[in-house]
Amino acid sequence: MENFSYHNPVKIIFGKQTIARLSDEIPAGAKVLTLYGRGSIKENGVYDQVKAALAGFEWLPFGGVDPNPRYEFCMKAVEYIRKEKVTFLLAVGGGSVIDGAKFIAAAVNFKGNPWRIVAKHAPITSALPIGVVLTLPATGSEMNGNAVISRIETNEKLAFSSPLVYPKFSILDPETTYSLPPNQVANGVVDAFVHVTEQYINPPVNAPLQDYFAESILKVLVEEGPKALSDPTNYEVRANIMWAATMALNGLIGCGVPQDWTTHTIGHELTAMCALDHGRTLAILLPGVWRTMREQTFEKLAQMGRRVFGVADGSVAEQAEAAIDATENFFRSMGMKTRLSEYGFLGTFLQPILHHITIHRHHVIDPDMAQEVLHQRL
Ligand code: NZQ
Ligand code: ZN
After folding, report:
1. Tell me: the pLDDT tens digits for 167-214?
2. Pairing of β 156-161 and β 146-151
3. Closest by Cα among 292, 289, 312, 288 to 302
């Protein structure tokens, strides 16, 4: 096992009717900005629950965060927060709202051009405190210090991390997820699955605890994911998926093991260039990344085949192939397309994506390798 340090300060409040607990968690006297997306929380009752819980606070609503939160929009919130002297940021929504809140929290007191926080990983020295009410299990953003922000004018989608933007608390009420449309359920399950595999399908370092943690999360997602589609108001299913998705990217399973975020890195370029949802890009790319990085991935893939998908026969190479096929079948069982051509994208479309990968990522992703992956997944 490799050396590591691990500190996750996020307080999780999990279960039915827990949004009411907001008032215990936000500091007394805080002036709160409640950030949310394009309106789902007004349709499913979450907004009303938040409003009731905030009754004793001075607070301002700020809606309109788009999926793949935009720098331009976030900067409007930054201006508003400065003007209104807001002291606490409450994010109510999925990964996009939470990530937007993290960037806004970091940008409010940043000296200089805030895009540098994302584009240059310019260090931040302070951030507004953030609280979260999660409505979409997927990204793990509710329990990590990462955010991904998009800039429309340049077709960029870039990530930053800071210990200063971990939420102070996150409220996870699985009942808030009953209203998710099937495509967002699938996006979330696939995203969480790939978060696990980016930290698990790597050269083995004799870390059996991390392996078993990772495999148990994968098994829960494989078993419960399809049930969330067929039985959307099953509380147990929603609860299991919600906790699995949080555990998939809160840092725990990545302790002391190698990580490789190639699928995510190429996926962010695909979203930036062609507006495919994050989860959809991953379902397309993952089998191609595994087949392209054959030598590094085969041993753990075979292990995943045996322990997660019940593959019993064949050589290590055959078990690894069976695991890739089983993963793709699982994604398809969640209603996911797994080929670029299924979305109408042809070979000619790949050139601008590869150009962006060369510009943005060329220190982490070999453009030739990215080309091979993308061609495989046409
Ligand atoms: O706009 P609203 O009204 O909020 O509607 C959203 C949005 O249309 C809707 N939704 C959310 N909860 C709902 C609901 N609809 C009905 N009922 C509910 N309970 O779902 C749509 C998608 O929401 P979004 O927040 O964009 O989805 P997700 O949670 O998948 O977040 C995706 C973003 O997170 C980034 C992605 O790149 C993408 O920008 N990621 C963040 C990570 C992190 N911070 O650690 C890691 C991930 O790998 C990922 O990159
Ligand atoms: Zn992801």
Report:
1. 999 999 999 999 999 999 999 999 999 999 999 999 999 999 999 999
2. antiparallel
3. 312
Measured by CA distance, the residue closest to atom 18 of ligand 1 is: 180
CA distance 323 to 301: 6
Question: Smallest Cα–Cα separation from 242: which of 316, 160, 142?
Answer: 142
* 327 in contact with ligand 1, CB cutoff 6 A: no
pTM, two decimals, is 0.98
Q: Which residue among 148, 196, 241, 276 has the greatest number of ligand 1 atoms within 8 angstroms of its CB, and so is best to mutate?
A: 148
- pLDDT above 70: percentage of residues in the chain: 99
Least confident of 7-11, 282-286, 355-359: 355-359
The string of pLDDT tens digits covering residues 25-47 is 999 999 999 999 999 999 999 99
Distance 314 CA to ligand 2 centre (A): 32
**In angstroms, rounded to a whole number, what is the distance separating the alpha carbons of residues 196 and 259?**
10
The end-to-end CA distance of the chain, in Å, is 37
Residue 56 CB neighbours (<10 A):
9
Residue 95 Cβ inside 6 Å of ligand 1? The answer reads yes
Domains of the chain plus CATH, in order, are 11-176 (3.40.50.1970), 180-376 (1.20.1090.10)
Whether the CB of 238 sits within 6 Å of ligand 1: no
Instruction: Tally the residues of the chain.
Output: 378
